Fold Glutathione S-transferase.
Amino acid sequence: MKLFYAPQSPFARKVHVAALELGLADDIELVLTPVAPGMANEDYARDGNPLRKIPALARNDGSVLYDSGVICEYLDARAGGGRILPGGGEARWLILRDHALANGICDAAVLVRYETWLRPEEFRWESWTRDQWSKIDSGLAAFEADPEACGDPKAEMLNLAQIALGCALGYLDFRYDERNWRGSYPKLSAWFESLSKRPSFAQTVPVNPPQ
Ligand SMILES: N[C@@H](CCC(=O)N[C@@H](CS)C(=O)NCC(=O)O)C(=O)O
């Protein structure tokens, strides 16, 4: 299988971490795929994701899956099912909800990056950017207040929400170190420090792609 990815993307990292946790990483070839709003990449729109977003997973039969949550569920099923996402019961709904929250933090953080890095300065919308930061902050505050949602970072297997949250925090460190999220969320900070020692996280720390 081929994973269209970039080493700085928190969504692509989530899939890569899930593959490592599930023992499937050796079945996946990583294909560096540059994407950004406004960047023409018609080959990828045709052969990967029509929305031109990463990650996408090309399976061995040629069919392609996106987005990151769908790919993670697929990998879980391929690894036997019920390992990063229970097949049923209340736990499933809570993990899916917390996954949505962590993913929403990533969405907001990536959008702020596009707004402040890609958009020409004269068109930037400061109150919109502040609002995205406020969403990120309320998401982090919800996790800080709910240690159960974070779960044990040393558990034998992580769940989908924990993986997504770790990738969101890693992206905040990577792009917005100066905002020091750790100062406001000490429980999350301790949790992330422990999570970061897992091989799946240590091997996938975000970096800028080669130029
Ligand atoms: N909901 C998607 C979000 C993926 C996403 O936004 N990826 C970013 C990179 S981190 C992207 O491809 N951006 C390109 C664009 O928005 O044109 C998922 O979970 O896979």
Notes: The chain has a mean pLDDT of 97. The pocket of glutathione is lined by residues 9, 11, 35-37, 52-55, 66-69, 103, 110 (CB under 6 Å).
